[in-house]
Predict the structure.
Amino acid sequence: MKVIDTHCDALLKLQTARLEQRKLDFRDAPEIETNLKRLEEGNVSVQFFAIFVNPETVTTIDQWKYAEEQANLFHEEIVGKNENVKFIHDWKDIHTLGPGEIGAVLTLEGAEAIGNDIEKLQKLYQMGVKSFGLTWNPANLCADGAGEPRGAGLTTLGKEVVQLNNKNKVLTDVSHLSVKAFWDVMELANYPIASHSNVRAICDHPRNLYDDQLKALIAKNAPIHFALYPVFLKKDARTATVADLCEHIDHVCALGGEKNIGFGSDFDGISCYIDNITNSSGYDYLLNELQKHYSEEQVRGFAYQNFINMLP
């Protein structure tokens, strides 16, 4: 059974290695949880790769340079050196993937890199960014993130970015937004997505979504993809099981969102794991376990079909 995974941080690991003058091969480096070998073993047919520039460690003057470098690594190391990895430049490209091919989608997590320069946003579109998260956890010039105590919504710039995303059929990712910014996005976005968030009613974490937020995403036919991260599954946990993930799945199903559910592992950006799912190869185990609780059709939906049905 194929899998579509809407979030990983492999690009940051590749960039960090290059900056430290270490050689890291995307094909099989054990440090990369979403390396090519593991994607193949987990039958991942489409993997989203996030450009992420940590605003807490990278100075403002360097943020665009760091983002460009990660985009270049995506095109050189992930797509350029692997014949079976295909760049998803247009959403319809997903439908043309052949047997054994893996679609690679470029995304952005946090708009710090563009500052207030819309030309840089246009460059990101040209580089192939197909999903745009306005914030990481802090605030920036577009919006407040989930970790910003002020909890403000979108700025004028943030609203312009969402409207440009709409025009370019780029997803607007709500996963790291403040609650107020979430609602501002939902009012404007044609193509919202929660790429890696879980259920706040089960695990009260600022990165998770309240029921009214989940219902709004369901009403807008938006993907709700769960992170495979114990911290988002159980309060103050460092370990979790597939049964813990099923609680989140069951909750969204009860809200009417069975056809919205998918996965955004957050591999390469997390430090603890669901039992037996420590990298992309673990999807085989995950789907087998899920079929003990759900029908094959339901699991196929969670794994990839729901997302396919919601493509712009």
